[in-house]
Design goal:
Elements lengths: L1 E6 L11 H4 L4 H11 L4 E6 L3 H11 L5 E5 L8 H9 L4 E5 L21 E4 L4 H10 L1
Parallel strand pairs: 1-2, 1-3, 3-4, 4-5
Helix pairs in contact: 3-4
């Protein structure tokens, strides 16, 4: 099974950025833990702060991978382009958010991506990624 985690803007700052919301662990450290725990899964990772690069990656893997775990971060609430990319591919996508977006600012309560995904996991911290991964298994 081939799964990719795609992270959007500012998630490269995990471990430094707002630890009271996002925790103190870097995503790279967490990703290595996931790889160790799920050795039978071919697990890839991509992060970009640039919307077009995220769209390009979704299109690149969207017909050949078994699953995409997508945390589009702030683009979740603004990007019709990413939503359209998710809608256009055949690979199933799980939308993930580390924080409970409904407990935050009102603009974070809407996702352009959600109508086009297999499921949504919100608010379980970094564990959200593992829950998404388990849903593909």
């Amino acid at each position: 099974m081939k799964i990719i985690i795609i992270n959007g803007p500012n998630l490269n700052l995990l471990g430094k950025r707002e630890p009271e919301i996002y925790g103190s662990q870097t995503f790279e450290d967490y990703f290595n833990e996931l790889r160790s725990k799920f050795k039978h899964v071919e697990l890839d990772y991509f992060q970009s702060n640039i919307e077009g690069e995220l769209i390009d990656k979704i299109q690149e893997v969207g017909f050949s991978y078994d699953g995409i775990i997508l945390n589009a971060a702030a683009y979740t609430h603004t990007s019709v382009g990413i939503a359209d990319a998710v809608k256009a591919i055949s690979t199933p996508v799980i939308e993930v958010h580390i924080s409970n977006t409904f407990a935050r600012e009102e603009f974070r309560h809407h996702s352009f991506i959600s109508p086009n995904v297999k499921g949504i996991i919100i608010g379980f911290g970094m564990k959200s990624y593992e829950l998404a991964l388990q849903s593909f298994l």
